[in-house]
Design a protein that fits this description.
Elements: E1 2-6, E2 10-16, E3 30-36, H1 38-48, E4 53-59, H2 61-73, E5 77-78, E6 81-82, E7 89-95, E8 99-102, H3 111-121, E9 129-133, H4 144-152, E10 158-162, H5 165-169, E11 178-179, H6 183-190, H7 197-209, E12 214-218, E13 224-227, E14 233-236, H8 249-264, H9 267-282, H10 290-302
Helix pairs in contact: 1-8, 8-9, 9-10
The structure holds adenosine-5'-triphosphate and 1-O-phosphono-beta-D-fructofuranose.
Length: about 300
């Protein structure tokens, strides 16, 4: 079973506002409410690609119930911990002349809720895969990622991490199977600006030297680079298309890579699946289906 953990799930309120101006009343031209949060997005895309997963994490209030309900409608399994205080957040994703995001705070998670998550993790076995992604709400200790990986370390399960900066750096010593920072996050870690795929490669290799088995760097419209554990460097430009909503493109890439790897055991196929999955999600409001990914793959070979 693939387990995803989303510490701070959300309802993503995706709106289109023509020429947004601060300080006045703006009206929406389009609106949609989607279940969100990085692990949840991974679970949705895995379902769309025909892979079972169970989404774990913390939920609260009526927003939490709606996230769970929406997620289950995609066929993903859920086993969320229901937190007593506060509400699961609503994150605003506004498309206008520029893309603007306002992400909420999330509920008040107590030590007993964390213990419940640990108890769930104790039931995982060697055959399972664990995807941990997204930010940590302020009520959780910033050692959360490390604590989780340390807890499952002896089970030798494949762990995938999609997190930024210190959260990511601190887990490298546990040798995660896959990490997926984007080029800006990679640049921040080493205090450099990385704009091209060639510039990214040496820094991706540094993260590998620091412990990650496979390092996948997403680069939005510039494509992606993979430095794999068999010393291969695989890179590609992005498939061409019109971007409608890039929220969740990175999560779709993680799901696509994982699905491709589990199906074939081949890094190049996993990479292309991830790349096309990311783009297929960016080219629509919601997240990619299997058919969308296959269609994007055809355009990649035509480019
Ligand atoms: N403008 C685009 N054109 C084509 N493909 C795109 C575009 N934006 C994203 N993608 C696809 O999605 C993948 C992941 O995108 P990106 O690098 O933006 O991830 P991210 O920063 O983790 O995104 P997010 O946090 O919004 O999920 C890219 O490698 C690419 O394959
Ligand atoms: O606060 P985090 O966890 O970093 O990001 C949360 C979030 O922006 O990430 C997803 C897209 O990747 C959205 O569905 C969600 O709203």
């Amino acid at each position: 079973m693939i387990y995803t953990i989303t510490f701070n799930p959300s309802l993503d309120y995706v709106i289109q506002v023509d020429h947004f101006k601060p300080g006045i009343i703006n009206k929406t031209k389009f609106e949609e409410i989607l279940p969100g949060g990085k692990g949840i997005n991974v679970s949705i895309v895995l379902s769309n690609l025909g892979h079972e997963s169970t989404a774990l994490g913390f939920m609260a209030g009526f927003t939490g119930k709606e996230i769970e309900h929406k997620l289950e409608s995609y066929g993903a399994k859920t086993d969320f911990i229901h937190v007593k205080k506060g509400l699961s957040r609503i994150n605003v994703k506004m498309k206008s002349d520029e893309e603007t995001e306002i992400n909420g705070m999330g509920p008040d998670i107590q030590p007993e809720d964390i213990q419940e998550l640990f108890n769930q993790l104790d039931t995982l076995t060697e055959k399972d895969v664990l995807v941990i992604s997204g930010s940590i709400p302020s009520t959780l200790p910033d050692t959360m990622y490390e604590q989780i990986i340390e807890r499952v370390q002896e089970k030798k399960i494949k762990v995938v991490v999609d997190a930024t900066n210190n959260l990511l750096l601190k887990v490298l010593k546990y040798k995660p199977f896959l990490i997926k920072p984007n080029n800006h996050e990679l640049g921040e870690i080493f205090n450099v600006e990385l704009n091209t795929r060639d510039e990214v490669i040496p820094y991706a290799k540094k993260l590998q030297e620091m412990g990650a088995q496979n390092v996948l760097i997403s680069m939005a419209g510039q494509g992606a680079v993979l430095v794999s554990d068999n010393n291969e460097v695989i890179q590609s430009k992005a498939p061409k298309g019109i971007v409608v909503n890039s929220v969740g493109a990175g999560d779709s890439m993680v799901a696509g890579f994982l699905a491709g790897y589990l199906e074939t055991g081949n890094y190049e196929k996993a990479f292309i699946n991830g790349l096309c999955c990311g783009s297929a999600s960016a080219f629509q409001v919601g997240l990619a289906t299997k058919e969308d990914v296959e269609n994007v793959k055809k355009t990649l070979s035509e480019n």
